[in-house]
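Predict the 3D structure for this chain.
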Amino acid sequence: MSGFPRGPIAIVATGLAVAGAVAAGAAFSSGGNGASEHGATSASQQLIINQRISQAAVRRSNSALNYLAAIRTAATDAINTGRNGVTPLPQVTGAGQGWTQSNLSHPVYAGAISAAGTVGPGGTALSAQFSAPGTYAVTFPVNVSQCTATATPSADPGANPDNQIHLYAAPTAGNAQAITVVVRNGLGASVAAPFNLVVAC
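Done. Predicted structure below.
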């Protein structure tokens, strides 16, 4: 008997062949989807890595700018925003000169103040306003509101406890360029007395 067998056996054989083809197609389709999903996962992981690299770069840039705060000003930041890349050294004011001692140390301001509130020569204090009986507001050419001020007597008060001098120095409220110094004697009363004022920033 030639040709393809007939009857139930032929139907079963044909069904198996179709089922095998469908199964193979399903397996191929599943494999394709799996590869696609794997590719999508790798892409998302790479995006996360790139994001972390960018965040680390921003943190390092911020840290560098903080270290350069000693020589940065609002004017220089406004002129050079970094959008135009790196400026050639010959076009940068002061480039190649290195750090100076003033860049590496904290500035110090000082003044010698008389009992009457007169500023003596040789210091950096601009003026002093005396309010009787013993309060002085000493003005400097810069903002000293975040600086540390120390006042010391400039005259020997003597051995009498009543003449002992105590001085208290602090930034002046409402005036960022001034330091207020209060002078008291050993009994706590405000008195007028000469003193030296040093402000470290």
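DSSP finds three helices and seven strands in the chain.
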